[in-house]
Specification:
The complex is a heterodimer of chains A (309) and B (249). Chain A is built from eight helices and 16 strands. By secondary structure, chain A is of the alpha/beta class. Chain A folds into two domains: 3-165, 3-Layer(aba) Sandwich (Rossmann fold); 195-308, 3-Layer(aba) Sandwich (Rossmann fold), CATH 3.40.50. Chain A starts with a strand and ends with a helix. Classes of the chains: A alpha/beta (309), B alpha/beta (249). Chains A and B meet through helix 3, helix 4, strand 5, strand 7 and strand 8 of A and helix 3, helix 4, strand 7, strand 8 and strand 9 of B. Strand 11 of chain A pairs antiparallel with strand 9 of chain B, so a sheet runs across the interface.
């Protein structure tokens, strides 16, 4: 048994979600190799080699991997697959994009978005927007997984794995990368922030969203998040969306402001350690998952809270 | 240009999920079933491409029990031209769905497959990627904008860091994210018209694809409940509790 994890990175730094994927599978008694495929990404491979639990880093450095296109990444994973029993990645938009290709071409089902490793073949995963948790056993010879990063702690540093070069170069994909437009973001990354301040439709406009929640987030060193309703209304960019189909977060503190708490939103944040909800509707479902609920006008309570901190 | 749009019949998004006490699954009997919301977005996008004169035919496909014909009628009422029901009572896994779709693609020769990025029941998010890999077609997942021009698709995707734009030759597989469009409601006359549109039924067994599941679901449980919280009367009390009780500040 041996494990191959596909690293996510931007050619200069490793995404913390990968360190969590490593930690998730460290409980299995098997060597873990991590594939860093990118371009001019040697520093990422060196960084990955310091993760505790990583036995070897495979570096595939080629322009074809520069922009993280799914097709060439799938091809190199397939090339390496015969040596591994488990092939995995974090269930980020990057991992979700690539891994099902590998599963399909290996003729196995992917076990998506696992939240617990029960054994080398058995995993827990949420279904129905977290309304139920399935325990599934993968019966095929090879196991392809995506791992919900927020359900696991990050692997410690202090490892010292070797870095080996992968010489395989996949065919050029038919797809051309055109551009990437980074969302506006100051402060910590939403997926890994210790504190998240999230806003809903009640914020009323993008201006009010920023004016009300920006200072609070800044004071707390928090990442900003949003409900689907707020994103759909254009108050916040798409990659701030927390929920079933957006990001799933589990910070130490989640402050929901003007969010009613649709089940799709709760699916993305209900595993936060402490949840605070501020909303003027006492019957809002968000209060059912909140540790501390404050029924108040958000436009009064939030500035007061910012000031009190 | 022909577009194939796979649609899945799922528990309606507004129905609260109830886990069966014996752990055998979630309760579906006598509950409202609807088209997977991401698939509605896919149907809408295909119809918009037809209305723009880019597509000539929109074929909706569903794999499931006879009742999935209702889901296909919804797609026809929105504006799809024809429908194919691949009948089976087995809960078909995404891999088998992708293989069935591959057979249908080979029969129908569409230039584009547009489908939802995930179904809101199994939340697996893998069928479109699998289909793309099996067909050897380019993939554009989690699309928030699609432009088709001169045999090429330019697709903006919702990714963790923001938005990413890819360009690819057709044929291709596109999966839809929430912001791609707002699906229309079918008008009553269109619902009536949809009843007369062609709906072909195929037995899943006849397609030469193994439907046997690879994942054994050992148990289905309620998610762990949170401890009941408390309400606080003021901002001052909230800050106090976060500092002294929750110790997160």
């Amino acid at each position: 048994m041996s494990i191959l994890i596909l690293a996510e990175h931007d050619n200069s730094a490793l995404n913390p979600a990968t360190a969590k994927a490593v930690a998730a599978l460290s409980s299995l008694d098997a060597p873990i190799h991590v594939l860093v495929a990118g371009h001019d990404c040697r520093s990422v491979a060196d960084e990955t080699a310091t993760l505790a639990g990583v036995d070897k880093v495979l570096l595939a450095d080629n322009p074809v991997f520069a922009n993280g296109l799914a097709e060439p990444l799938g091809d190199v994973l397939l090339e390496l697959a015969p040596d591994y029993s488990h092939i995995a990645a974090a269930a980020t938009s990057f991992g979700k994009n690539v891994m099902p290709r590998v599963a399909a071409l290996l003729d196995v089902m992917q076990v998506s978005d696992i939240t617990k490793v029960v054994s080398d073949t058995t995993f827990e995963r949420p279904v129905y927007a977290g309304g139920a948790v399935q325990t599934v056993e993968a019966t095929a010879e090879k196991i392809v997984l995506t791992i919900r990063a927020s359900a696991f702690d990050e692997a410690q540093r202090g490892g010292n794995a070797g870095v080996e070069t992968v010489s395989f170069v996949p065919a050029a994909p038919k797809t051309t990368f055109v551009s990437r437009e980074a969302a506006r973001s100051e402060g910590p990354d939403l997926a890994t922030a210790k504190i998240v301040v999230s806003g809903g439709r009640a914020l009323g406009s993008a201006e009010q969203f920023n004016a009300l929640l920006g200072p609070l987030a800044e004071k707390l060193g928090a990442a900003l998040g949003a409900s689907r309703a707020a994103v759909d209304a254009g108050y916040a960019p798409n990659d701030w969306q927390v929920g079933q189909t957006g990001k799933v977060v589990a910070p130490d503190l989640y402050i929901a402001v003007g969010i009613s708490g649709a089940i799709q939103h709760l699916a993305g944040m209900k595993n936060s350690k402490v949840i605070v909800a501020i909303d003027k509707d006492p019957d809002a479902p968000i209060f059912s998952v909140a540790d501390y609920g404050l029924v108040a006008d958000i436009f009064e309570a939030v500035p007061e809270l910012t000031k009190a901190l | 240009m022909k577009i194939l749009v796979p649609v899945k019949r799922v528990l309606d998004a507004n129905v609260a999920v109830r886990v069966r006490p014996d752990g055998s699954g979630v309760e579906l009997a006598n509950l409202k079933m609807s088209m997977n919301p991401f698939d509605e977005i896919a149907v809408e996008e295909a119809i918009k491409l037809k209305e723009a004169g880019i597509a000539s035919e929109v074929i909706a496909v569903s794999i499931g029990p006879v009742q999935a014909a209702d889901t296909l009628r919804s797609a026809l009422a929105m504006g799809a031209d024809t429908a194919i029901l691949v009948k089976t009572d087995i809960a078909v896994e995404p891999l088998a769905v992708a293989k069935i779709l591959k057979v249908l693609v080979e029969r129908q020769s569409p230039d584009l497959v547009i489908m939802g990025k995930q179904a809101i029941d199994d939340d697996a998010n893998q069928t479109a990627q699998m289909l793309s890999a099996l067909l050897g077609w380019p993939q554009a997942m989690f699309a928030s904008q699609v432009t088709i021009d001169g045999g090429k698709a330019t697709v903006t995707r919702e990714v963790d860091g923001g938005l990413e734009t890819l360009e690819m030759p057709l044929p291709a597989v596109i999966s839809t994210d929430l912001r791609l469009n707002t699906p229309r409601y079918a008008s009553l006359p269109n619902v009536m018209k949809a009843k007369k549109k062609p709906l072909e039924e195929i037995e899943a067994d006849s397609l030469g694809v193994s439907l046997a599941p690879q994942l054994k679901v050992l148990n289905t449980a309620e998610p762990p409940a949170r401890k009941p919280g408390s309400t606080v009367g003021s901002v001052a009390e909230l800050v106090e509790k976060l500092k002294t009780e929750a110790r997160v500040l």
